[in-house]
Amino acid sequence: MSGDAAAIVAAVEAVAERIQAERDHLTDLDSAIGDADHGGNMARGWAEAADAVADLDDPDAQTAVKTAGKTVLSEVGGAAGPLYGGSLVFASQELEGGITPETAVAFAETYLEKVQDRGDATVGDQTMVDALTPAVHTFKKSIETDDLSPLEALAKAVAAAEAGVQFTVPIRASKGRASYLGWRSVGHQDPGATSTLYIMEELLDTAADQLDSEVPDVDASSPTIPDAEAAEN
Amino acid sequence: MNMAMKKLINDSDDVVDEMLDGMTAAYPDMRRLPDTQVLVRDDAPVDGKVGVVSGGGSGHEPTHGGYIGDGMLDGAAAGDVFSSPTADEFEALLNETDSGEGVLAVIKNYEGDVMNFETAIEMVEMEGTDVATVVVNDDVAVEDSLYTSGRRGVCGTILVHKAAGAKAAAGADLDEVQRVAQKVVDNVGTMGMALTSCITPEKGEATFDLPEDEIELGIGIHGEPGTERTDVMSADEITEELTEGVLDDLDLDEGQEVVTIVNGMGGTPLMELFVVNRKLQELIGDHGLETWDAWVGDYMTSLDMEGASITVCAVDDELKELLAAPADTPGLTVQ
Question: Touching check for A176 and chain B: CB below 8 Å?
């Protein structure tokens, strides 16, 4: 197995463990605004995905990501299956040449684009897009403009995603299941943005592990972190 | 399952699986794709014909599998109770029903259904299958709900199945089949109400609390909230609330011909549905409209919920011809 593929297998395993550990927390977040199935469905789907990629015979990175995506798509179901899994399947085509800084940026952008299209959501709708958008934009800028190492870029992306999650708290949901609550959704942290952050944190930890490095210390400055304080006013 | 609840259910985890096997045992013209919850007509794909498919959560029987047959659906994917089928199930459905002429996917407007169908469509399109879609959103009661952005798709879907199925059976191409399906969507409205909550197999108890002396107007087909909870009213008063709600939304010209449906939610005796239909037809006349056809029955249910919905669809010569064309399915037969 290539080093890239081994990293993917390790990352999917780490995501599965993290989601399982946070299962009850995600369900609590979801029960406040939705139908309380996010934690259970995601935990089940990612556990299956970890098994599926571990069973692959000498995969390349693209195949490993695609397999994880297909499994999440069919095992998580609901809207989360297409959003998390379907987007992975689609974005996996960017990794045909393995994982480089360039293909990683292309992968992240395609993933974000797919999530936005499928969910018809943009920043400020109180969805996973609020975590994903600043993360992907930060990652791209860090690689392409700021010339940071991939690990530093990923660390900055995670910091941006974290700011995005906090941004979902004071705003009103206008897409997704919470949107029917209208103003009653204000004050709730979005479960989809939260699980997206967990996935990214595990990607960062796995990448650091694979590179035998420490997770770099970065600040969260980003061109596109939404401003939670401005949203409150 | 809560053992206190008496149901003809062995295990809530097996209920959809066992229902589907029971359906294929009852209807030899259907078969189930192995390792899926997808039913298709036995002779699918039908040579030279555009496929028409649908699907969604279970618990709405005869929707959707019950409309598989000549003149209506070529196949349908069944999700778990009140849950969307997954994308790989829709993918299997689309692949099995494409004869090379393309497939129309009739999607009810729920986020899970829309996203999983769309994902499946992208996948089969990469393999060269042509798919067109219509999204049914006929519920005039609420704009956003627990399961939707925008209006919900409910009983008007049956008319979409019928018109699209008839057009496909007549040999029309995919664009034409899609066009008539959209024509129904553009001209149909529905509003429902509940006397009692439904009981999902998983929970084994009422999905929502509805006191003995209250009813819920504008209810969705999963027991999701409606527009108003009121004291019990007479059948005529309820019929008036629903009918006025639908007609307000449709805003039809005097003399317009319509098809009406009084649809039972699963737990309401046919006797009561006819009582509703009697008043409905009086109101249609009061509005200067003309009923071309009146359907009464359980078309799109919500498990064992007591209640009903009223659907009105404006029809022109083209839709009349399609709705009157023969159909031979377990849920609807037109000769």
Answer: yes
- How close B111 gets to chain A, by Cα (Å)? 6
Helices (H), ranges, A95-144: 101-119, 129-144
ipTM comes to 0.77
**Using CA atoms, how far apart are residues A154 and A165, in angstroms rounded to an integer?**
16
**Crossing angle of the two packed helices A38-54 and A3-21, in degrees rounded to 10:** 150
Asked whether the bond before B62 is cis by omega within 30 degrees of 0, the reply is: yes
- Asked if the model's pLDDT at residue A178 lies above 80, the reply is no
Instruction: Report how far apart the first and last C-alpha atoms of chain B are (Å, whole number).
Output: 42
Give the predicted TM-score (pTM) of the model.
0.88
By the CB < 8 Å criterion, does A69 face chain B? Answer: no
CB contact under 8 A, A82 and B87: yes
Cβ within 8 Å, pair B115-A176: no
Mutate one of A74, A88, A127 to test the B interface: name it (highest B CB count within 10 A): A74
What is the CATH number that goes with domain A3-232? Answer: 1.25.40.340
Q: Walk me through the domains of chain B, giving residue ranges and CATH numbers.
A: 15-187 (3.40.50.10440), 188-327 (3.30.1180.20)
> Residue B192 forms beta bridges with which residues?
B309
Q: How far is the CA of B79 from the CAs of A3, B38, B54, B113, in angstroms?
A: 39, 9, 11, 9
Distance between terminal CA atoms of chain A?
Answer: 52
pLDDT, tens digit, 9 for 90 and up, residues A94-104: 999 899 999 99
Under-70 pLDDT residues of chain B = 1-4, 145-148
